[in-house]
Specification:
The complex is a heterodimer. Helix content of chain A is 66%, strand content 1%. Chain A has 22 helices and 2 strands. A two-stranded antiparallel sheet of chain A has the order 1-2. In chain A, helix 1 (3-20) packs parallel to helix 4 (67-92). The relative contact order of chain A is 0.11. Chain B is built from 16 helices and 24 strands. Chain B has helices at 10-21, 33-42, 55-60, 76-89, 101-105, 107-114, 122-135, 171-174, 213-222, 240-249, 263-272, 286-291, 307-319, 335-340, 349-366, 448-451, and strands spanning 2-6, 25-30, 46-49, 68-71, 93-97, 118-120, 139-145, 150-156, 182-188, 191-193, 206-212, 232-236, 255-260, 277-280, 299-302, 324-328, 345-347, 374-378, 383-389, 405-406, 410-417, 420-422, 435-440, 452-453. Chain B has a 6-stranded parallel sheet, with helices on both faces. Chain B has a 6-stranded parallel sheet with strand order 14-13-12-15-16-17, with helices on both faces. A 5-stranded antiparallel sheet of chain B has the order 7-8-11-9-10. The chains are: A mainly alpha, B alpha/beta. Chain A binds chain B through residues 67, 154-159, 170, 172, 174-179, 383, 386, 388, and chain B through 2, 20-21, 25-27, 33, 40-46, 49.
Chain lengths: 481, 454
């Protein structure tokens, strides 16, 4: 492995994390919270002290980033981001236990939104902003940001982006990776600003609007209130956030197509049709299931559409507790937690494209049993899908399930909650949704340190789509040559 | 510039590699997913799977706004069609690889009707290169600059050559009447450097000299090398390169023996090339080679499909005492190894094709941004020769070269003024409108002002 290159790139990423801490530091100063400002400043200085020498002094002789280095950089940098990202929580005393803080930071960067914070009264504004801002960085990806900011990183960068960008295949929107990354972040930033303004118009104050805008953007789900969006009790705010949650679940390449006037691409997108179809169907079904609970269709529609958007986009904001819903609605929510949103979005889950292809694959195998000689090409978005990709997706599905089951088993060793809770905890973490069923409806504080570590690994594996994290556990990666 | 490349084969991939490095927006189209996956992993370009002759694929790839389309698929017809469609869609320039000799004869008509700006025939281009090497057998490489006015010849220095052992600046004093050429580059044991005045040439160096074509001829006559003239050539393999080459050199009075392993093909060649001695047999059979008079040949050119066979038979020919051995080898990575084994003249159709394509692309790119008129790769792309046009208000104009500062690792090789070739010395200066050829041991220079400062 080309260790010098790995170290060099990681140095650059640490510097970017230091820069990312700056807004939270400024907010801490604005709200006159010296404790919070210090808690942001010290990790920043540590990152600079570590990152700058690595970046400047370790110059790689060979600039070629191969698959091995690419995956290692991605996995290691996400681990380091989380470790340093947890320090402000510890230093400020908001989450004094390091394992808890690490869980919170991983949950932030992976845009899961599962929290260990139970009391939201009088929390330092700077630290709460940092907590939400981790969603924004993790949503589009820190390596994508690195590529957008560092022009000299050209050439073999596809392994970095592939490991970090969600979906079975990586497609660039323009020929150059650096330009692609810049365009993605511009769209991302623009959507965030629009939501921020919309939320202010709907009545939020600047601070809440900023927190919720960046938290929605990453499809994360950290809020400043224990009752999440329910605390505002405002249909206008709910509608704005719902619309944006759905928007962030769409492949960003489609937004670029719209910007360059290519509406045909939007019309042709099969994944978008599946996505909106699943959203519409689930909303109608759940509305029907919960209407008796709320007494009228409009309240039922209001709550069910928000919760469905929240789960499908894997954000995890809530207006009501879906644990109080009938089992039929909960079952559908559980299924949606698997699905997630479109490839190339900021959301988690298995991704609609994989679900759609698995459905088609199943259909094909059924047909093959009674018509074995029929040649069947699986088509998606009007094109035939390569067999290699199909088998990769099947394996992905297996690994996804295996990881959830293994995670469920491991956290059940602590013997704190029932199996339903533990299963939903593993699923919600791998899919980067956030809330689960039973005891973890609003927070994960009840789990012990071991379970939190397991769940942190699950969140990272889910965000990076399994393999970049799993390769770290494969001994051959660390062997020489 | 936005460049579409259709065909991710050997040439397509190499061209894309260079274009991506030169910071162009490149879209690569091919039908083979596996080839594209490899390019996607190693190059910063956009890959699209599809047929490049399909209008929708071209539109998806952005052909409407493309500056250049390069069609290098395996099929000539597809390449022509790609260029035609892309041009109709709005692409500005088109380059097509057209290699079939049948099309070659009606090329100018095809080019005009299909609106192709450059048609590249790799085999013909390679044959031209080889014929140049056969005209100057002592040279291992010849390159022409400034529309053919300036030639640069690379040759290996022998023990008894008169230029050995004297610093370059004293050569004209010690050797009276030696024609003035520029010593542009020296390759000593694989290390390339630009020789300055105190440089001493040693036997075994590969020296690149540049001057006007007439002067070059006179120079080598002075060194006593021009007397070697090639009369008998043996060509191994009866492929397209051999065909073009035989057609080019037989009128020059060179007798050609061509060995072809396929009987049918041998018969066809014999029919279409009446002046060539076509031999049907296995060219890797040493017995056959000796029987057909290999040791008496002035030159041996190995042009089989397989690089390995070319190398082995080439080495055998060197051992047999053939003075000039040229082998075809497409694997650039092994060039060093081969040179070490004693084979100096290697031609690579892939590199030649790429170099031709890149030369045009850079010329077009020049109109928007960089100021390089033309760019040539030298010594396996380890050095470059760049043609610039001097501009009237640049600071170096009119200042004697000795008062200017050159960027390290560069050299003003030649100045062409009003069709006159000047090999510059310290007292010469650059005038507006001059074509200035710079030799550089680095790549990426885009402006003459980067090279020469006051």
């Amino acid at each position: 492995m080309n260790k010098r290159l790995v170290i060099h790139v990681i140095g650059a990423i640490l510097m970017i994390e230091a820069a990312a801490m700056l807004p939270a530091l400024v907010i801490g100063l604005i709200y006159r919270e010296p404790g919070a400002a210090q808690a942001m400043l010290y990790p920043m200085l540590m990152l600079i002290a570590l990152g700058l020498p690595l970046w400047l002094l370790v110059k790689p002789k060979d600039q070629n980033l191969r698959a091995k280095e690419g995956f290692t950089v991605v996995a290691l940098s996400w681990l380091l981001l989380s470790i340093f990202g947890a320090l402000p929580f510890v230093f400020s005393g908001m989450i004094p236990n390091f394992v808890d803080a690490l869980f919170e930071a991983v949950s932030g960067f992976t845009t899961t939104g599962a929290t260990v914070v139970t009391n939201f009264e009088n929390r330092p504004h700077g630290i709460m902003f940092w907590r939400a801002f981790t969603h924004w960085i993790g949503g589009m990806g820190v390596l994508v940001l690195t590529l957008a900011l560092l022009p000299q990183m050209t050439g073999r960068t596809s392994h970095l982006v592939r490991a970090e960008s969600p979906g079975p295949s990586m497609s660039k929107i323009v020929p150059k990776m650096g330009d692609s990354a810049k365009i993605l972040y511009l769209i991302y930033g623009a959507l965030t600003v629009i939501e921020f303004i919309a939320l202010m118009i709907a009545g939020m104050d600047v601070y809440d609007a900023a927190i919720h805008a960046i938290s929605t953007a990453g499809t994360g789900g950290f809020s400043t209130y224990g009752d999440s969006i329910g605390a505002f009790n405002s249909p206008a705010i709910e509608i704005i956030i719902m619309v944006f949650m759905v928007l962030y679940g769409v492949n960003f390449a489609l937004y670029y197509s719209i910007l360059i006037g290519n509406w045909k691409a939007v019309k042709k997108s099969e994944e978008l049709r599946w996505y909106l179809g699943i959203f519409a169907f689930s909303t109608i079904a759940i509305t029907a299931f919960v209407t008796p609970l709320y007494g009228n269709v409009f309240s039922a529609l209001r709550f069910s559409s928000f919760e469905v958007a929240s789960v499908v986009s894997t954000t995890g904001f809530g207006v009501v507790d879906f644990n109080t819903w009938p089992q039929s609605a909960k079952a559908l929510i559980l299924i949606l937690m698997f699905f997630g949103s479109c490839a190339g979005s900021t959301a988690g889950g298995m991704k609609i494209v994989r679900v759609a292809l698995l459905c088609k694959l199943g259909q094909r195998e059924i047909r093959r049993t009674f018509q074995p000689r029929k040649v069947q090409v699986v088509r998606f978005e009007g094109k035939g899908v390569e067999e290699a990709q199909l088998s990769q997706i099947s394996v992905f599905f297996f690994v996804y399930l295996a990881l959830i089951l293994a995670g469920m088993f491991l956290i059940s060793l602590e013997n704190r909650f029932d199996v339903q809770t533990n299963f939903s905890a593993a699923l919600t973490c791998v899919s980067n949704v956030g809330p689960g069923f039973g005891a973890i409806a609003s927070d994960f504080a009840g789990y012990g340190p071991f379970a939190k570590c397991v769940l942190s690994v699950l969140m990272l594996a889910g965000r990076l789509e399994m393999f970049p994290i799993l390769v770290l556990f494969h001994p051959a990666l660390w062997r020489k040559n | 510039m936005r460049i579409l490349v259709i065909g991710d084969g050997k040439v397509g991939h190499t061209v894309v590699e260079h274009l991506a490095k030169e910071n162009h927006d490149v879209v690569l189209i091919d039908t083979d997913e596996e080839a594209l996956a490899r390019s996607q992993d190693t190059l910063d370009v956009m890959c699209i799977r599809g047929n490049g002759a399909n209008a929708q694929t071209l539109i998806d790839a952005g052909a409407k706004k493309a500056d250049i389309i390069i069609a290098a698929t395996a099929s000539d017809e597809t390449n022509m069609l790609c260029c035609l469609i892309a041009k109709r869609l709005g692409a500005k320039y088109s380059i097509a690889r057209i290699r079939d000799p049948e099309y070659n004869e009606s090329l100018s008509l095809l080019r005009h009707e299909l609106d192709i700006d450059l048609a590249i025939n790799p085999e013909r281009a390679t044959a031209i290169e080889i014929s140049r090497l056969l005209r100057f057998p002592f040279a291992s490489n010849i390159e022409a600059f400034a529309r053919g006015r300036v030639e640069m010849v690379a040759f290996r220095v022998q023990d008894n050559d008169v230029i050995v052992g004297t610093p370059l600046r004293d050569l004209s004093r010690t050797l009276r009447g030696i024609p003035q050429v520029l010593y542009a580059l020296v390759d000593r044991d694989g290390a390339l450097s630009i020789p300055y005045g105190d440089f001493v040439i040693q036997p075994g160096d590969l020296v690149y000299v540049a001057a006007e074509a007439v002067t070059i001829t006179a120079y080598f006559r002075f060194l006593g090398k021009a007397s070697v003239k090639i009369r008998d050539v043996m060509l191994l393999g009866g492929g397209r390169i051999s065909y073009y080459l035989a057609k080019m050199i037989t009128p020059m009075g060179i007798r050609v023996a061509m060995i072809e392993i396929n009987q049918k093909k041998a018969e066809m060649l014999s029919e279409s090339l009446p002046d060539v001695n076509v031999i049907y047999g296995d060219g890797t059979d040493q017995e056959l080679l000796e029987q057909e008079g290999l040791p008496q040949m002035d030159a041996f050119v190995a042009l089989c499909d397989r690089d390995e066979e070319n190398l082995m038979t080439g080495l055998f020919a060197v051992r047999q005492g053939v003075p000039k051995v040229i082998v075809k080898n497409n694997r650039v990575a092994y060039a060093d190894l081969i040179t070490d084994m004693g084979l100096d003249s290697i031609v690579s159709p892939r590199s030649i094709t790429c170099a031709n394509i890149l030369r045009y692309v850079r010329g077009w790119a020049n109109s928007e941004g960089t100021k390089v008129e033309r760019l040539y790769h030298l010594a396996d792309a380890r050095a470059e020769a760049l043609e610039f046009i001097a501009r009237a208000n640049d600071p170096y104009i009119g200042v004697p070269l000795k008062d200017l500062t050159m960027r390290p690792g560069t050299l003003v090789a030649v100045i062409v003024r009003d069709r006159k070739v000047i090999v510059p010395f310290g007292n010469d200066h650059i005038e507006p409108g001059d074509t200035v050829i710079i030799i550089a041991c680095e790549s990426g220079l885009t402006d003459l002002n980067e090279v020469i400062t006051r």
